[in-house]
Specification:
The complex is a heterodimer of chains A (about 600) and B (about 375). With about 600 residues, chain A is of the alpha+beta class. Chain A has 13 helices and 31 strands. In chain A, the strands form six sheets. Chain A has an eight-stranded antiparallel β-sheet. In chain A, a hairpin with a 2-residue loop joins strand 30 and strand 31. The longest helix of chain A has 18 residues. By secondary structure, chain B is an alpha/beta fold. Chain B folds into two domains: about 250 residues, Alpha-Beta Barrel (TIM Barrel); about 70 residues, Arc Repressor Mutant, subunit A, CATH 1.10.10.920. Chain B contains 17 helices and 15 strands. Chain B is globular and about 55 Å long. The chains are: A alpha+beta (about 600), B alpha/beta (about 375). At the A-B interface, helix 12 of A face helix 9, strand 10, helix 12 and helix 17 of B.
């Protein structure tokens, strides 16, 4: 197909604004899939993605569309993840496109994440086509949304397309706009090869499959290519396109979106954002924008049943095959035994991995409270990175500690500005900016510690704004904070898995809340259990789980032994779900109690 | 070989507010048919009993003494005439003081019943009302005196502690009152609020003023101090008797001896198999009349579970579990089978062990479930 008839585009939308439904309609309309073949939301392939209505991995699909002028076009839709955890992946997907559909809910208006992604798209000089979705809703107000798009983003929304992805209204108009307004890709077939990797997945037979956008030159099977960042050289065995199932073709030319396979075993060799070039005739300078992604959030994952350790390791290895951003290494906790310290892009990523481990591998896990990476400057001049609070050196050895801060953008109706400011203040936020999007909505910018975001900022934000606020954030840098390690002691012994690093001013109240919460979670046992919160040697809060005074079935009635035995079995079963920490039986919820205090 | 027989009478005048046993307050019209069906079941069981001699009978409920005299006579007649009951057998019946007049008690005695167990629960009039009991303390005293006059020389009183609004003083005066009546046996149960009972709902609504853990424990301690001091030796977690008056039927449950149950919801344990009869009265009657089996639950207890049962039942007794009895039953040495569990329990001072056997310590009696559960297979 002629390059002039290729259009590469993506869809930018806030969660629930209808991105996946719109994508499904486009597939259906262009006949990429018959209605019968469609399971709702084809592009979100994981069960989890379907259930949560979110996109976790980028996907791509090639559509063929015969426009009103009679010409046939090849449209490559690259579906991007819609969550702040995956901003880098989004930016790489955007870099593979010339245009973007900006989908905004006709009733809701622009949200913070949409905004962040639109700015990204503008940075990449993408043609942006505003699409106002859900116009079938009674509360739809397209004019207001148009105005907002113009005010906030500063692009012309007069030609915004009104769509109801649900009913299929406006779909043809969207396709026409893609053809007319998104520019065709540039690049020449006889130039040296440069192709951008925007995603990958592991296939048991073919090895790692790289999702690529060819910028210049061509890729064919038999060619030897090199990944420029990892310096991995591979002989290409297959190339192909997404229809949406993988379909082999002879060649991928400039402007094409497709995949290549070359018996690559390790997903780490195919990094999102890396540039593929011809090993024998390489370009000198890689495509811009690549960076090695580093996890932002760490937590310990431990099997409740220590016999499941090997299963957990195997499961993590398998997930890692498809997810280079997941990292893990063995870790030992006095309280929890053998497990893994795992690094994630963010909380959603962590949540998804944990849920997949439990669901797909039938594991029961204890997750410790998530932690950010702290930079600890020691008095002896050494600097260490701490991803596990229990590893923080003694106070006497610490000169100061830096923690990661983010630039957070919150979009919220004006009525809730006060609530957001109050919350952000409480969360040690530094006010940066406030901008009215229109008369009813405001955009607030704060610098906030990432640790507060992953603790409960988002939940609190949602509840204090009745769900109206949307949040986006990006890592902004490290700053010095007065941080201390808060230890929790059960029966006098510190429990490593319960330690947290907190701001000194918050330590007292966090300690008190935690002790109270643990008191509610730890069941009565044969002896009294003191619960203490301590900073160093100083106990700052104390609660007591009183001893259970008696635990015996009074009566074995009428020879019904089975029933009594079942009661005892239940008791034993309950005990099995607990971890013995010293001589205290601790339910698994206790380790998650630290996550959130209601 | 000897076997125990349990006979269930599922009728009550009124359901007590804490009760989750299989009994009904609105089925009196079925009493005739029920006893007829029960007698048919007993007669049908005759074959099984050929190889056994019944040496304990326990007629429980419900309220067996709610049955009119003629039905009680019909039942006892059937038992006596159709089954092989040992001459010296212990024959117990449960009685509610509100349903036991002198004539009825006299009749029971005449038909071979030699042990009677009164569900008194408390001698406090207020508490009895709160429990939904149908009798007064005075009626309880009178019923016990009638029983003794009728010739019962083995009388038990059931008491309860840990009751809503109960004080230590209430409990003490009930204990005093009970032992002053010249009885031979005391069963004293801690209240357990069971799901599905009115008490459960009240507790959910926080309208059940249960004693605190401290008071509950003090009651337990007080009972175990007072009862032996009055000559009632504790021989099981909740049971106390004058020497020689332990309830032989109940001991069968704890010592893993066989028993057969007849009537609704009655449980049997024969040849390592546990069975239970259907619990609905009208269904039971129908099934028996169709000459079908009323058994609705079967469980063959596997070896590991059987061991756990054997242990936890025997450990309920103050004498504990005989090591020899265990190895006779299972051909395995107990201490070799459970070395780490036993070591752990010993370290926590929950059990005592000597050459003869293993038993709960005083602490172990309080935390029996911890000990019992630890022997269950994983």
């Amino acid at each position: 197909m002629k390059k002039n008839n290729i259009r590469n585009f993506c869809i930018i939308a806030h969660i629930d604004h209808g991105k996946s439904t719109l994508a499904d309609r486009l597939l259906e309309y262009t006949g990429a899939l018959s209605a019968r073949e469609m399971e709702n939301q084809v592009l979100d392939q994981m069960d989890l993605e379907r259930e949560r209505g979110i996109t976790i991995k980028a996907q791509a699909v090639r559509l063929e569309y015969t426009a009103k002028d009679g010409q046939t076009f090849m449209l490559n839709l690259i579906d991007t993840p819609g969550h702040v955890d995956f901003t880098y992946e989004v930016s790489r997907s955007l870099a593979a496109c010339e245009g973007a559909l900006l989908v905004v809910d006709a009733a809701q208006g622009i949200e913070a994440q949409t905004l962040a992604n639109v700015y990204l798209a503008l940075e990449h000089n993408l043609e942006i086509i505003p699409v106002i979705n859900k116009i079938d809703l009674p509360s739809a107000d397209p004019e207001k949304v148009k105005h907002e798009i113009e005010e906030v983003i500063g692009i012309d929304a007069s030609e915004a397309i009104l769509v109801s992805a649900k009913t299929g209204f406006g779909i043809e108009e969207v396709l026409e706009a893609i053809v007319k307004r998104v520019p065709p890709p540039e690049g020449k077939a006889d130039n040296q090869l440069s192709a951008l990797i925007f995603d990958s997945h592991f296939d048991a037979y073919k090895g790692v499959i790289a999702y690529v956008r060819v910028m210049e030159g061509t890729i064919r099977p038999g060619m030897k290519v090199r990944m420029m960042a990892t310096d991995k050289k591979v002989e290409v065995t297959e190339v192909g396109v997404f229809r949406p199932s993988l379909t082999n073709v002879d060649v991928l030319g400039p402007g094409h979106v497709g995949f290549l396979a070359g018996s690559v075993k390790n997903v780490k060799d195919i990094r999102v954002g890396d540039t593929i070039t011809d090993a024998d005739n390489p370009i000198l300078k890689a495509l811009p924008g690549y960076r090695k992604i580093n996890p932002m959030v760490y937590c310990g994952l431990y099997p409740v049943d220590s016999a499941e350790y090997d299963t957990l390791r195997d499961a993590l290895e398998k997930l890692q095959l498809n997810d280079a951003s997941l990292i893990f290494e063995p870790e030992t906790s006095v309280a929890l035994g053998f497990g893994f310290r795992c690094g994630f892009l963010g909380l959603l990523h962590m949540d998804v991995i944990q849920e997949r481990l439990e669901r797909e591998y039938d594991l029961t896990l204890i997750t410790t409270a998530p932690s950010v990476i702290y930079k600890v400057y020691k008095t002896d001049g050494e600097r260490i990175d701490i991803d596990n609070p229990s590893k923080l050196p003694p106070v006497t050895e610490i000169d100061h500690i830096e923690e990661p801060f983010v630039k957070a953008t919150v979009i919220v109706p004006t009525d809730y500005v006060g609530a957001v400011m109050e919350l952000s203040q409480e969360k040690r936020g530094e006010f940066k900016d406030m901008k009215y999007l229109d008369t009813t909505r405001v955009m607030l910018t704060y610098h906030l510690p990432l640790s507060e975001i992953i603790y409960d900022y988002f939940d609190r934000l949602k509840s204090s704004t009745r769900g109206y606020a949307s949040l986006d954030y990006e890592l902004f840098g490290y700053q010095t904070s007065t941080l201390v390690k808060l230890d929790m002691l059960l029966n006098g012994d510190p429990v490593d898995a319960l330690s947290v690093i907190v701001h000194r001013d918050k330590a007292q109240s966090r300690g008190r809340q935690l002790a109270e919460k643990l008191k509610g979670i730890i069941p009565q046992q044969m002896f009294e259990i003191p619960i203490q919160a301590a900073i160093g040697n100083k106990v700052i809060a104390r609660e007591t789980v009183r001893a259970m005074r008696k635990d015996v079935l009074a009566k074995c009635y009428g020879g019904d032994i089975s029933r009594k035995r079942k009661l005892l079995e239940k008791q034993k079963e309950g005990k099995k779900r607990m971890k013995s920490v010293g001589n205290v039986e601790v339910p698994q919820e206790a380790f998650m109690a630290i996550l959130k205090i209601d | 070989m000897n076997i125990g027989l349990y006979v269930h009478i599922p009728f009550c005048r009124q359901k007590c507010l804490y009760c989750d046993f299989s009994s009904f307050a609105d089925m009196d019209h079925l009493q005739d048919e029920y006893v007829a069906a029960l007698c048919r079941e007993i007669t049908g069981q005759g074959g099984i009993f050929d190889e056994y001699i019944i040496d304990t009978v326990f007629i429980g409920g419900g309220t067996p003494t709610l049955l009119p005299a003629k039905l009680l006579v019909r039942l006892l007649d059937t038992l006596n005439s159709k089954l092989r009951i040992a001459a010296e057998a212990e024959v117990s019946i449960e009685a509610n003081p509100g349903t036991a007049d002198y004539d009825k008690l006299r009749l029971l005695r005449e038909y071979g019943v030699n042990r009677i167990s009164f569900g008194v629960q408390s001698f406090s009039s207020d508490l009895l009302k709160k429990l939904g009991r149908i009798h007064s303390p005075e009626e309880a005293v009178k019923a016990i005196e009638f029983a003794q006059k009728a010739g019962f020389r083995n009388v038990n009183i059931d008491l309860m502690y840990g009751l809503p609004d109960q004080t230590l003083a209430d409990l003490d005066s009930s204990l005093e009152q009970a032992v002053s009546l010249g009885i031979q046996h005391l069963s004293i149960y801690g209240l357990k609020v069971e799901e599905g009972t009115p008490f459960y709902k009240l507790r959910e609504k926080e309208q059940l003023n249960l004693p605190t853990d401290d008071i509950d424990e003090a009651m337990y301690d007080w009972i175990n101090h007072t009862a032996p001091a009055k000559g009632f030796n504790r021989y099981e977690i909740s049971n106390y008797a004058k020497p020689g008056y332990e309830c032989l039927h109940n001991l069968k449950y704890w010592l893993y001896k066989p028993y057969i149950g007849v009537g609704t919801a009655a449980h049997s344990f024969v040849n390592g198999e546990r069975r239970a009869n259907i619990s609905q009265v009208n269904q039971y009657i129908k099934i028996i009349n169709q000459s079908h089996s009323p058994v609705e639950y079967h469980e063959s207890v596997d070896e590991d579970t059987a061991m756990a049962e054997f242990i936890f039942l025997a450990l309920r007794t103050v004498a504990g579990m005989s090591l020899k009895a265990f190895s006779n039953e299972f051909k395995v040495d107990f201490l070799k089978k459970f070395p780490s569990i036993v070591e752990n329990l010993q370290a926590r001072r929950l059990v005592d062990i000597n050459e003869q056997g293993i038993k709960l310590t005083e602490l172990g009696m309080k935390y029996g479930n911890v000990v019992f559960a630890s022997f269950l297979p994983d």
